[in-house]
């Protein structure tokens, strides 16, 4: 069975916490609050750093393009609640994907049940939460695939877990070519080195590459991206 890495080294979490029922949490929170409800406690998240937001933005756009183009389901980004089970925790993953066959779980207010794929990007205050607490919560609730990205300087690593037939996460290795191929999103692959680039790749061009667009079309998109937006033609 796969186990989270470097748990002992995780710094203590020092986030504001409030005690309340889930019903009180729903009445208290609004769409501008980035908070999670776990075991009668509310965890209010600190604002993420730029590196965190850059990676989340890149992956969200890339996944959204892929999922929408192939009509595979829906992609959401935080803050959006995922209520893992009726009596379980309410989490707000950085990114979640719901497969088309499970879209009935997606309501206007939240995802009522587990996502099929969850992506979490580690911050300094979330190491234990992401590597241990969410790992076991997602495994137990039935999240089929879990990506955990650690972009902190000197700690750069990505872990991929897929839930097996026994309901346990098994670690999935990155290929010798540096590419991870998703078990849940058929045909989707990710070159892990993209995440550590000083300037992240253009999501549209990256999507075109992953989706297998012809090389001449990718080159045309690259040329358009290089030129930048063109002025509007003069009105007659």
Sheet with most strands: strand arrangement? 4-7-9-10-11-12
Radius of gyration: 19 Å
CATH architectural label: Alpha-Beta Complex
Structural class: alpha+beta
SSE string: EHEEHEEEEEEHEEEEEHH
Residue windows where pLDDT falls under 50 for at least 5 positions: 6-14
Average pLDDT taken over every residue: 86
Residues in β-strands, percent: 15-25%
Shape: globular
Would you give the CATH topology?
tt1808, chain A
- The structural domain count equals 1
| Topology, number of strands | 14
End-to-end span in angstroms? Answer: 68 Å
Oligomer: single chain
Describe this structure in words.
The chain has helices at residues 22-28, 50-69, 127-141, 203-211, 215-227, and strands spanning 17-19, 35-38, 41-44, 73-77, 81-83, 90-91, 95-99, 110-112, 117-121, 145-150, 157-163, 169-171, 179-181, 189-191. It is of the alpha+beta class and 236 residues long. Strands 4-7-9-10-11-12 form a 6-stranded mixed sheet, with helices on both faces. A 3-stranded antiparallel sheet has the order 1-3-2, with no helix packed on it. The radius of gyration is 19 Å and the shape is globular. The relative contact order is 0.13. α2 crosses α4 and α4 runs antiparallel to α5 (215-227). It has 5 helices and 14 strands. The chain has one domain: tt1808, chain A (Alpha-Beta Complex), CATH 3.90.1570.
């Amino acid at each position: 069975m796969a186990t989270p890495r470097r748990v002992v080294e995780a710094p203590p979490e020092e986030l504001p916490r409030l005690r309340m029922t889930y019903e009180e949490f729903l009445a208290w929170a609004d769409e501008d609050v980035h908070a999670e409800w776990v075991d009668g406690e509310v965890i209010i998240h600190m604002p993420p750093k730029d590196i965190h937001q850059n990676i989340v933005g890149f992956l969200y756009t890339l996944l959204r393009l892929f999922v929408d183009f192939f009509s595979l389901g829906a992609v959401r980004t935080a803050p959006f609640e995922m209520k893992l089970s009726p009596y379980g925790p309410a989490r707000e993953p950085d990114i979640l994907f719901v497969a088309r066959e499970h879209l009935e779980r997606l309501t206007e207010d939240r995802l009522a049940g587990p996502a099929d794929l969850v992506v979490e990007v580690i911050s300094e205050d979330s190491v234990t939460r992401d590597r241990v607490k969410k790992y076991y919560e997602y495994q137990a609730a039935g999240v089929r695939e879990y990506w955990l990205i650690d972009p902190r300087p000197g700690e750069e690593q990505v872990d991929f877990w897929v839930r097996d037939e026994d309901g346990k996460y098994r670690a999935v290795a990155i290929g010798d070519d540096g590419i991870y191929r998703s078990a849940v999103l058929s045909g989707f692959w990710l070159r892990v080195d993209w995440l550590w680039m000083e300037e992240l790749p253009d999501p549209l061009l990256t999507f075109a590459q992953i989706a297998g667009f012809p090389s001449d079309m990718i080159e045309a998109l690259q040329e358009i991206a290089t030129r930048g937006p063109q002025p509007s033609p003069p009105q007659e």
